[in-house]
Every structure is written in structure tokens, then in C-alpha cells.
From TrEMBL:
InterPro entries: AAA+_ATPase, ABC_transp_ATP-bind, ABC_transporter-like_ATP-bd, ABC_transporter-like_CS, Oligopep_ABC_C, P-loop_NTPase
PROSITE patterns: ABC_TRANSPORTER_1 (PS00211), ABC_TRANSPORTER_2 (PS50893)
UniProt name for this protein: ABC transporter ATP-binding protein
Keyword Kinase attributed: no
Superkingdom of the source species: Bacteria
Residue span, ABC transporter domain: 6-245
Matches recorded under Pfam families: ABC_tran, oligo_HPY
SUPFAM superfamilies listed in its UniProt record: P-loop containing nucleoside triphosphate hydrolases (SSF52540)
PANTHER family: D,D-DIPEPTIDE TRANSPORT ATP-BINDING PROTEIN DDPF-RELATED, TRANSPORT ATP-BINDING PROTEIN
GO molecular function terms attached to this record: ATP binding
Keyword terms of this UniProt record: ATP-binding, Nucleotide-binding, Transport
Native source species: Actinoplanes subglobosus
Amino acid sequence: MSLLEISDLDVHYRRRVGRLHALRGVSLSLSPGETVGVIGETGSGKSTLARAVLGLVRPTSGRIVVDGSDVAAFNQRQWRELRRRGIVQYVFQDPLKSLDPDLTIAESLAEPLRIQGSADIHDTVRKILSRVRLDGSLLDRLPGELSGGQRQRVAVARALITSPRLVLLDEPVSALDSANRVQVLELLKELRDAGTALLFISHDLGSVAGVADRIAVLYQGEVVEDRPASSVINEPVHPYTRLLVSSAPTLRSAAAGRAARGELRTLLNLEGAPV
Ligand code: ADP
Ligand code: MG
């Protein structure tokens, strides 16, 4: 069974004048442990998709089934319960939006555990911090006292601390410099390899290419491709995808003729392509 099943999702935003059709008939599914990349240009509806799955935007029509429940019709109480269970977590582009500026890093990390009523909060917080390779001395700091890269790793740690089955990542590396980007992408690969399902949203094909099993391309609110990553890169079909692939020459030459994800990843790492 799918962990996430989006069918025929439409989202309209009400504007001062008329409506904006942000998503049109979007269908996308994700199996347990699978990593799906969603790429598209600015305004193509990527964040709307993530926000609909998280219950932050109400779909105009369509179904969103998370772990067997149709969340599109969820009320506040049902959302709270789903969040408490910690099955779905998220990381946004700007970690300051996923972290409370007035809570220390220790408090931010402990919060989801406290909501779940788990024991051993202190221990779990320490373990997760070392998993994202941050020093324990950061625990007493406020988010504003950390670098952007450190903050994003805290945001990833916070998303992971409840051992979610699905993590939604909306442009998680777009605000990072290249060294931090590489580190966070490595972290995402570890997560994927440990069996966490990821929905990895980015405008940057290069970031997604090394992590995703499958890539879906959103163009003006519609999914125009949804295939194995190597197939999208090697044989892009939609004109927009062709444009993306041709403007990332390293990616294409690295990917040429290589179907296996492992091979693709090794190449990207070796050739220093923009992963
Ligand atoms: P992306 O994340 O791919 O850049 P978004 O999902 O943020 O795209 O936006 C898709 C479209 O919906 C854009 O045209 C954007 O301007 C519009 N939009 C996003 N949020 C709102 C909102 N709250 N109200 C009205 N329009 C919105
Ligand atoms: Mg966005």
C-alpha cells in the first residue's frame, strides 16, 4: 500500500480578482521507503503541494491519503492527532520557519517528543544531534545564534526525532551554500537508505538527482513527467524537462547511459556535479 497517495488534486487560491489555479489534477504516489523528487520552476505549485499534504492548504478537490487516511477532509482535531503520531514531518527552505526563535535548540528538539509523551527525551535529543553531526554545545543556543547550515541540520533533526515514515522537504538546500548543501544532501541520502520515505521538492534538478528514486516534474500546476530519476534525466520528454536537463550539462553527461541509481550517484560525487 502507498504511504502517500495524491489523486486528482486541485487547489485554487482566491485572489482579489478571480482565482488562481495552483494545482490541476495532480496525482502522485509514494511507497514506504521511496524517495520522490518533485521539481519545477518558481510558481509551478511545488509548495502548494507540500502544504496541501500537511493540511496547511485546503484542496479544492481531490484526495490525499496518508498512511491509509484521507486527510483532505480532516478537521483540526484529526490533524492534531496525525501530527502527534509524528508519521509525517517536514523541513522547509527557511529553517527559521520550522524553528521557534525563542526556544533553545534543546527545547525545539524535545518538543515533538514531549507531545508524543516519549521517555528518554534527553538521550534521544543527544543521539539525533550527533546523527546530523552537530556538536552538543549547540543545545543551549537559540536558532538565531546558529549558522544557516547548522540551523537547517537542526530542522532536519527535529523532523527526524519522532522517526517519521514520511518527510516532506520543500527546497531544503536552496538557501544553503555549497558546503552545507552537500552535507544536508548526504544526510538525506542516509535517511533514504535507512528506509524513510522522502518527498523532496526543489527547483534544482541537480540537488534532487542524486537522492531521488523517482522524479516528478511539475509545470504550471500539472505533473508532466513522473518516472524513475535516471529515465527523466536521460530521456526527458516534456519540453520543460528537456530545458532543465540541457541546462545542467554535467548532470546529463554524468547520467548518460546509466540506468542504475547507484552508478549515477557515484558519478555525480566523483565528478563534483552540482548535487
Ligand atoms: P512554487 O513553490 O513552485 O514556487 P507555489 O505553490 O508557492 O509555487 O505557488 C504556486 C502559485 O500559487 C503561484 O502563482 C503563487 O503566486 C500562487 N500562490 C501561492 N500561495 C498563494 C496564496 N496563499 N494565495 C494566492 N496565491 C498563492
Ligand atoms: Mg515553493
